[in-house]
Amino acid sequence: MYLTFRRVALISSLIGLVVLISCMIYRHNLASYTANLDTRAFSAGLLEPINSLEPAMINCHQERLIASAMYEGLVYYDEKAGSLKPLLAKSWKYSTDGKSLVLNLDKSIKFSNGKKLQASDVKRSWENNFSKTMDWSNISLFLSINGSSSRLEGKTADITGIKVVNDHTLKILFDKPNAVFIYMLTNPIFWVYDDDDKVTPAPGTGPFMLTENKDNKQFILLRNDKYHQGQPRLSALNITIYSDEYQAFSDYKAGKLDYLDTIPLKEIKNVKNNKDYKGCYISKALLDTYALGFNLNKEPFADNYQLRRALNYAIDRKAIIDNILGGACLSIRGVLPIGITGYNRQMPGYDYNPEKAKKLLEEAGYPMGEGLKPLVLTYNNDEGHTMIAGFIVDQLSQLGIEVQLQPMEWDYYKKQLGKMDIAFFRLGWHADYPDADNFLYSLFHSSKIGISNFSGYYNPQVDKILDASREEHRSHQERIKLLNRAEEIIVDDAPCLWLFQYTAERLKSPSVNGLNIDNMGMIDWYKVELLKPSLEDEGTTNKI
User: Fold this and answer.
1) For a 10 Å CB count at each end of the chain, is N or C smaller?
2) Does the pTM of the predicted model rise above 0.70?
């Protein structure tokens, strides 16, 4: 069919009109979006599970991340400064003997329901959390406080060592000095809420308030206009919980999410190398380590220092990270992860040295594995753990060492660890609070054997140094020196085979500003904001 000039002109005019109308609609929608940016919710995607946002019941990173928008503690850790800063407390001071701590609250703080924060609210929140929590690591954070053991055993109605001096002053009494307790207050178990208000969840002092929970699959949080630091930059948070990490990744690429908390493992290298993600991709070293523990009370590891060291030199950590973990981790040579105050870059620790491993194995009495019974490596059943365990099997076989794998369900695995029934096991440790004490004291002080010290490690010299570090409340630098000395001894004793520390691999949209991940994997929601788009921006996707 042939088109006449008149028809061509008519069609051209219609096309021009459609384009003009489309541009007008787009500009109108964009203008409306820009004008109403202050009311648009910030969309975030997290993976399952979410079971509770109560401070006492928080059991995973995702729960902690959401709840941190609602609740706060008395202090927070400023990673850039490497020190604690005031939050709900304006100041604090240890007594001369280190056996008590006075905390002075900021008088201007209000809960999201408008009620003013008082010291009695703090005491009640802490005691409620202590009573409700089922996690022994949470309970242990209280145990240096006078009366906590009696409260745990039901002998008293409260924790007598938590004293309300007046409306804005608390005094904490310790059984023995605990210089690190002030760092423990960053843990969710010490977050504060208004227990008098019987709404669920209880009002907190954070920058946002939970207004809707759709079966733990979607959470809507609105801005807390009474927030003590000023009005948050976002009007609301819309947090979607995914069961499929690839669906979450797809929604991010389609522009449906402003923030993605988990990148699929197999996609991490692609994201790192794709220039389209520049400015959107976030990678941050976490205070979260992965090791294999040796039970020092079981053969063949008991009294065999050379064997434990030989195994440490036998593993190529970088190969695990590159081939299994998508490059999303950092190798470690000892106890402390990169990024924690006290991390010692000069400490030799352990690297991949198969020749040294062979020599130490011979000194241990097992030349090229001869005479060594098969090692049984136990771990909680998980695809990632299975892949890493398989790599360990292959590497140790090169030294003539046979390793058999024993996966267990998580709950049963935890029970076996607590019973100290496992000789060779996976040991993951995420910091309860951002201080080197949490890795050294918790994992290697003899008082923690069977609680968090699952290797049964006992060195009287290390105990003495770690005790001295908790007594040193006057000088932070001196305390860190003591912790460094303790780590040197522990690493030399090799109660573990240290492998790597995790990194946070995240994505944000180009329109997000002020979103930073700290080394605990957390976000300061108060500082996050959405940038206004320009008329030249194309489409609504993240352009990936």
Assistant:
1) N
2) yes
